[in-house]
Amino acid sequence: MAPAAPEGADGPLAPAARGAPVTVDYPTLARTVAALAEGETDAVALMATLACEIHHADDRFDWTGFYRVVAPGLLKIGPYQGGHGCLAIPFGRGVCGACARTGAAQIVPDVAAFPGHIACSATTRSELVLPVRDGAGRLIGVLDIDSDRPAAFDATDAGALQAILDDTFSGARA
Question: Per-residue pLDDT averaged across 49-63, rounded?
């Protein structure tokens, strides 16, 4: 059985219970993820947990998932929430490939303006992709979040989510 969220926390979905739009509460999300992931080192298990928690934490997030590094220069679909994702993405293509190739966050306010964007979903308008590294600093994948809203992501989202990824995967084994 998974550990419960920290005592006293409403959880990142509390506003949904009241019918209000859900906007991520990053400190609560970080505490919830830390509690759920405590002691886990399997990267795929961690990815599955994070995909679920992040996806349901904010109404902007239409597709939330991981692409795993499976060979030099190649990402393959990992755990995700939402519609179907692309199965394989070379490092040389798309927003996920750019993140994997450069190791830098990709905040894309308009995917139609991104050279080489891969349209896995016709409804995606903006995208945020972050590198996922294990405790040794090796790139093991990328976190991809798509939104049907233009300019849905900013540096605050990227920074808060990157901190959660770094904390969660610091002891991960690929």
Answer: 96
